[in-house]
Design goal:
The complex is a heterodimer of chains A (511) and B (142).
Chain A lengths: L1 H20 L11 H16 L22 H13 L3 H33 L9 H14 L1 H7 L4 H21 L4 H13 L5 H15 L1 H6 L1 H14 L1 H8 L6 H6 L8 H11 L3 H6 L19 H14 L3 H13 L1 H5 L13 H18 L3 H27 L8 H11 L5 E4 L5 H7 L4 H6 L5 E2 L2 E3 L15 E6 L9 E7 L5 E7 L1
Parallel strand pairs in A: 1-3, 1-4
Antiparallel strand pairs in A: 2-3, 4-6, 5-6
Helix pairs in contact in A: 1-4, 1-5, 2-3, 2-4, 2-22, 3-4, 4-5, 4-6, 4-7, 4-17, 5-19, 7-8, 7-9, 8-9, 8-11, 9-17, 16-19, 17-19
Chain B lengths: L8 H17 L6 H7 L2 H15 L3 H25 L3 H10 L2 H5 L5 H32 L2
Helix pairs in contact in B: 1-3, 4-5, 4-7
Classes of the chains: A mainly alpha (511), B mainly alpha (142).
Chain lengths: 511, 142
């Protein structure tokens, strides 16, 4: 049995790797602006030790003024050392996190089932934690929610890895060796340095975990105190750079639910409940084109009865394991509840793990009641995965290309080819400077010196409502006009940049 | 309470050709057979029917109709309903509730609303009584 389970473990891991790696630089079709920002800042750190604004090894990266947390950027810097400056390197940390989360979910579910097994020793369904954990692992490997975010450079995927590792190691500390508590605290601390939503979710997660095992922790008070001290030492840069720096709280200040019109409590409860909306979970998903394929939910439709059955099963067999799963689910949905846009699959990414564990419980529960499921479920799962992958690889890159800032790379690559023939190149902010820096690429030191970010070398950002002024009257120049501007027949069109549906994104004229 | 239910059988049939058109437009380079297998009328119809049906039990719908506490009490009510002896009959009645607005029976939307919200409110009231009983047992029993 153990041998088969071990083989299954590695097969699922291989599936997880292949689903996350296949064509990852082509689907999602382009780097969206945060990925571009992360990539260039990492490049800048590697080249000069400063970010694009000239700050040495910063804790908060100013980037577009959104003040990004540092860990994903430094991870990308490392990945760029390995793979070079390309689209893959910015996605690599996320892919790796996705694969590791798949494996960690196996170990986490195993621990949770062991907690339940202690209480329900005679219940057959808890006697085989391997099956439980393998099903949860498989569900994570094929989950649309997971695949969407672990195939692109989203900080949330790295943050989720640290949170899941933190919870698993905490449980391991309780069951095996208290020393794991240090490692758990270390991973929880790392999650704070990765993604803004972790400030809410990790804090609550740690607090409630401690509350749940308070008796055990009080017995080992010396080591626990040392761990708390260790955690706070790790968090010193975070407190200094985030909590006591006004810039660190920019996102939290602008995006919180209290900025919405109406009663904040009603807004909060409405937002929170919308994270559990069936439409969001099983039918339509997040309506941001970068966050889902929009045609199916964050979970597969066939998972709906199993999630409900799993919830029933877990509530019927209450244990500390059940409490932890439900806690993760309820905490996971809190960040979207506290912010303006809900449901939000990225901010609520933590909830994707408990939902799959609940579903795996539902499958195990249903398998014992309806043996016929053994016949029907595998083909249904295979069909739904195939159907999702078809949507993801064929429909999605064409339909939601614009959400991934299409055309920027192609336009800049064309400019870099012809640049030597021209004295000046005029652009508008529709081709964001970050893409220019990244794909030419521009030397980071040059960007750091151009404080306003409105001209780099021969590239000049301008407002096309007036004719751009050339430095010299008879020089050769290019103008990059966005597709929404009507064609200018008095200028020579050098190249039109098209999207996959042949819509014009940019027109490049000789000027 | 809002009785202008958007998710109805009429809407499903009206929206079906549009959804099919959208999916097939995005699939122009794909193999026709695969597209037909994956994006066809029966599967879309089935998905939309389930989507509309379940939307009447969805936490966001219940929160909009009965506030957040109402939604929580509804699920508590369901939990206790599942523990009762006559759970099959009671659940069957409850599961019929979304069919009124979904199928448009009776014609008048207010009557549909009364039937749907009425049955859901019964579960909430059941939830309240169960919470009250639980509190009494936990804190006031001798």
């Amino acid at each position: 049995m153990a041998k088969i389970s071990l083989i299954s473990f590695f097969l699922i891991l291989a599936l997880s790797i292949s689903l996350r790696l296949y064509n990852v630089t082509k689907v999602p079709p382009h780097l969206y602006w945060d990925e571009a920002g992360i990539s260039f800042n990492s490049f800048s750190i590697n080249e000069t030790g400063k970010d694009e604004w000239g700050k040495s090894y910063p804790f908060l990266f100013r980037s577009f003024g959104d003040y990004k947390l540092p860990l994903y950027i430094y991870a990308t810097a490392l990945s760029q050392k390995l793979f070079g400056l390309n689209d893959f390197s910015v996605r690599a940390p996320s892919i790796l996190s996705g694969v590791l989360v798949t494996a960690l979910v196996f170990f986490l579910t195993f621990e949770l089932i062991l907690l339940a097994k202690k209480k329900y020793q005679n219940d057959l369904r808890f006697q085989d934690p391997w099956s439980f954990s393998l099903i949860a692992m498989l569900l994570i490997a094929i989950s649309p929610w997971q695949l969407q975010f672990t195939r692109a450079g989203f900080e949330a995927s790295l943050s989720l890895l640290f949170q899941i590792a933190g919870v698993w190691l905490f449980l391991l500390a309780v069951r095996k060796n208290i020393c794991f508590l240090f490692v758990s605290a270390f991973f929880f601390a790392l999650s704070y340095f990765t993604y803004h939503a972790a400030l809410v979710s990790t804090t609550l997660l740690m607090f409630l975990l401690c509350l749940l095992f308070i008796k055990f922790l009080l017995e080992k008070i010396k080591l626990v105190s040392l761990t708390i001290l260790f955690f706070f030492v790790l968090m010193i840069p975070f407190f200094a750079g985030y909590l006591f720096d006004q810039n660190g709280q920019t996102r939290a200040r602008t995006e919180n639910v209290f900025n919405m019109k109406g009663n904040p409590l009603i807004n909060l409860s409405t937002n929170y409940a919308s994270s559990f909306s069936f439409d969001f979970l099983f039918f339509k998903g997040d309506q941001n084109g970068r966050h889902s394929v929009k045609k199916i939910g964050e979970l597969y439709l066939w998972q709906l009865p199993f999630v409900l059955a799993g919830l029933y099963f877990l509530l019927k067999h209450r244990s500390k394991g059940t409490t932890i799963i439900l806690m993760m689910l309820l905490i996971g949905a809190l960040p979207p509840g506290l912010t303006l846009v809900a449901p939000h699959s990225l901010r609520g990414f933590l909830a994707s793990v408990p939902l799959q564990i609940i579903c795996s419980a539902g499958i195990v529960f249903a398998y014992y009641r309806l043996r016929i499921l053994r016949l029907f479920l595998p083909p249904i799962i295979a069909f739904s995965v195939f159907s999702y992958l078809h949507l993801y690889y064929v429909f999605y890159p064409r339909a939601y290309e614009a959400d991934w800032q299409s055309g920027r790379k192609e336009a800049v690559q064309f400019l870099s080819k012809v640049e030597k023939n021209y004295d000046e190149i005029f652009l508008t902010p529709d081709l964001e400077p970050i893409y220019l820096y990244l794909y030419l690429p521009v030397k980071p030191a040059l960007v750091q010196n151009s404080k306003q970010h409105n001209s780099v070398g021969k590239f000049v950002y301008t407002d096309l409502s007036k004719s751009p002024k050339k430095l010299m009257e008879r020089e050769n120049a290019l103008i990059v006009a966005p597709g929404w501007m009507s064609p200018n027949t008095s200028l020579v069109l050098k190249r039109a940049i098209l999207d996959k549906s042949n819509n014009i994104l940019y027109r490049i004229y000789e000027y | 309470m809002n009785t202008d239910f958007p998710c109805t059988l009429d809407w499903i049939f009206l929206d079906l050709p549009h959804q099919l058109w959208e999916l097939q437009t995005g699939d122009t380079d794909a193999i026709v057979l695969i597209t037909r297998i994956l994006h066809n009328k029966p599967s879309l119809l089935f998905t939309n029917l389930i989507r509309c049906y379940t939307s009447f039990f969805s936490p966001d719908f219940l929160t909009a109709s009965f506030t957040f506490f109402g939604m929580a009490l509804f699920f508590i009510g369901i939990w206790y309903l599942l523990q009762t002896k006559k759970r099959q009959v009671l659940l069957l009645i409850l599961l019929l509730a979304p069919l009124f607005p979904l199928l448009g029976i009776p014609d008048n939307k207010h009557y549909q609303g009364v039937l749907l919200y009425g049955l859901e409110a019964c579960v909430i009231i059941f939830g309240v009584t169960q919470v009250f009983l639980w509190l009494r047992q936990k804190f006031f029993s001798s």
